[in-house]
């Protein structure tokens, strides 16, 4: 019997459950899913858990906040199958994805700042007209049809209709024909929605951003949304760092550590 074997201590399902703050049924589910190492059974059919299973359980629970349920499960299965390169590939992919999200969010923030700082009447404002008596008349803000807006933003008209149905856009309707007309403020809002959707923002959060921009006339709501996402990315990166340390300890402690 190896030194690792002699160091193992038998544990009950309830012991594992208490260590991770889950139910005993969840422990059984983890064992069946391959999240825990193979579990031998007694002659009576009861599972025999030990400290290997506790370490695997705590490693998996540490992986979830950073890598998500599916990836965490795949990592643990790869380790238990003896395929450490696959496990590390999944870890690397998680870090690469997070890095890409950070870059995309930074780019979205810069674009949003530029769009949000544009006042609705500063883009493509037509020249002022004169009345027959020569009196200057205020210029009428340009209005665009839905197809023109879609072409300018590089989206489908169906996307603009979906955003309108969700309450994100509120273009005016032409009397009689009921055609949609987008004024400069509507176009600005559509640009913001497009950028935020590219950053995978959910529609309710975009609604809050637009409401904040309309109420304040400033990009403060946009900055707050971006700061919230960046904080989430930082928290996830921190969780990944902690999980990587635990995974290294579990998978690299020795040839018998995860088998």
From TrEMBL:
Query: Where is the sequence biased in composition, kind Basic and acidic residues?
Result: 115-132
Keywords for this protein: DNA-binding
Q: Where are the transmembrane segments?
A: none
Q: What is the lineage of its organism?
A: Bacteria, Bacillati, Actinomycetota, Actinomycetes, Kitasatosporales
Q: Where is this region: Disordered?
A: 115-143
Q: Which Pfam families match?
A: MerR, MerR_1
Q: Which PROSITE patterns match?
A: HTH_MERR_2
Q: Which InterPro entries match?
A: DNA-bd_dom_put_sf, MerR-type_HTH_dom, MerR_fam
Give the superkingdom in one word.
Bacteria
Q: Which organism is it from?
A: Streptomyces rectiviolaceus
Record-given protein name: MerR family transcriptional regulator
**Which residue range or ranges hold the HTH merR-type domain?**
16-50, 143-212
């Amino acid at each position: 019997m190896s030194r690792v074997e002699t160091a193992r201590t038998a544990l009950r399902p309830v012991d594992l459950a208490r260590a991770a703050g889950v139910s005993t049924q969840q422990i059984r589910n983890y064992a069946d899913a391959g999240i825990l190492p193979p579990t031998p059974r007694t002659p009576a059919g009861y599972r025999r858990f030990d400290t290997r299973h506790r370490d695997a359980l705590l490693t998996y629970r540490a992986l979830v906040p950073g890598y998500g349920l599916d990836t965490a499960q795949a990592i643990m299965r790869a380790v238990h199958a003896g395929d450490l390169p696959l496990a590390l590939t999944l870890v690397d992919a998680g870090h690469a994805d997070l890095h890409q999200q950070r870059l995309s969010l930074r780019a979205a923030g810069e674009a949003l700042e530029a769009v949000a700082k544009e006042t609705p009447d500063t883009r493509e404002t037509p020249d002022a007209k004169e009345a027959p008596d020569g009196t200057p008349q205020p210029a009428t803000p340009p209005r665009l049809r839905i197809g023109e807006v879609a072409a300018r933003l590089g989206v489908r008209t169906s996307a603009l209709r979906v955003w309108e149905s969700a309450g994100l856009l509120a273009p005016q309707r032409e009397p009689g024909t009921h055609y949609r007309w987008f004024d400069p403020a509507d176009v600005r809002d559509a640009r913001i929605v497009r950028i935020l959707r590219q950053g995978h923002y959910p529609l309710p959060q975009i609604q809050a951003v637009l409401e904040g921009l309309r109420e304040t006339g400033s990009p403060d709501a946009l900055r707050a949304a971006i700061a919230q996402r960046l904080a989430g990315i930082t928290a996830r990166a921190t969780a990944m760092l902690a999980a990587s340390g635990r995974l290294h300890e579990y998978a690299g402690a020795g040839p018998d550590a995860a088998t």
